Amino acid sequence: MVTIERLAGDRGFSMVELLIGSVVTLLVLGAALTVTTQIQQGYTTQLDRAGEREEARFAADWLARELRQAGTNPYGVTVSACPAANTNFLPIRIDPDGDGVNDDIRVNADVNPPNQLLGGSAGACIEADEDVTISHDPATRMITRFDNNVDAAPVPVTDSVITQLQFTYLDANRVWTVNPAAVAFVQILVTAQARRMNPQTGQFDTFTAGSEVRLRAR
To answer: 169-183 burial by CB neighbour count: b if 16+ within 10 A, else e?
Structure first.
């Protein structure tokens, strides 16, 4: 008969040791999961911040390009048949919707082509980009562009992250004015808000971009 002797140290884990080991393992896994989640949230937050910054900068730059052509009028147009009879040529119209908020602007420019017609002739208002209204839509949080001659409805030009659009008007001496005929400079401020809340602050991050345009012949 062969006798196998159990060595003193050759024994299994006790129930207490198994419980302790399980608890330690769960703690380590939980800590690792927490760190991974925090890293992922931080990465997502950074992406949102980058997105809002790019959208605000894009909007400010795009608006500046649109406004730089305001007042282009090589043939001295004074009155147009488009989009309606007796439409006055005005480089800009402040607050075209009349709500008292400077979050919209209307721009005239004889550019497509420059031909002494603003938007076209009576019954043929087909010249695009010559009479345009730019607005902020707070409901959709977008900036829209509406061509008063060819568009059926405002066209979104930004993602739905724009929470504020503000135009400020200055005269040639850089003094604030509400007289469209005196406006020489238009300052633009665009604020974008991240889509997700910042988990570290409990707030939605925002970013504001600005630009300034000097109107032609002012």
So the answer is: bbeeeeeebeeeeeb
- How far is Cα 25 from Cα 15, in angstroms, rounded to an integer? 15
The three-state secondary structure class of 108 is strand
Q: Sign of the CA dihedral 141, 143, 149, 152?
A: negative
**Domain boundaries defined on the chain:** 38-70+131-214
Tell me which DSSP letter residue 182 carries.
Answer: G
> Regarding beta strands 155-156 and 162-170, do their DSSP bridges make them parallel or antiparallel, or are they unpaired?
unpaired
User: What is the C-alpha separation between 65 and 212, in angstroms, rounded?
Assistant: 10
Q: Reply yes or no on whether the pLDDT at 2 is more than 60.
A: no
Give CA–CA dist 68/53, Å, rounded.
23
User: What's the average model confidence in pLDDT over 162-179?
Assistant: 97
Neighbouring-strand partners of residue 87? 80
174, 178, 180, 184: CA torsion to nearest 10: 10
The token pair that represents 189 in the structure block: 């401020």
Give just the sign of the alpha carbon dihedral 93, 97, 98, 103: negative
Which residues is 146 bridged to in the sheet? Answer: 133
- Which residues in the chain belong to E strands, given as ranges? 79-80, 87-88, 92-94, 104-108, 131-137, 142-147, 155-156, 162-170, 185-193, 206-214
Q: So what's the pLDDT on residue 9?
A: 54
Q: What is the pLDDT of residue 162?
A: 97
Output the pLDDT for position 202: 84
Q: What is the mean pLDDT of the chain?
A: 88
How far apart are the C-alpha atoms of 134 and 152, rounded to whole Å?
14
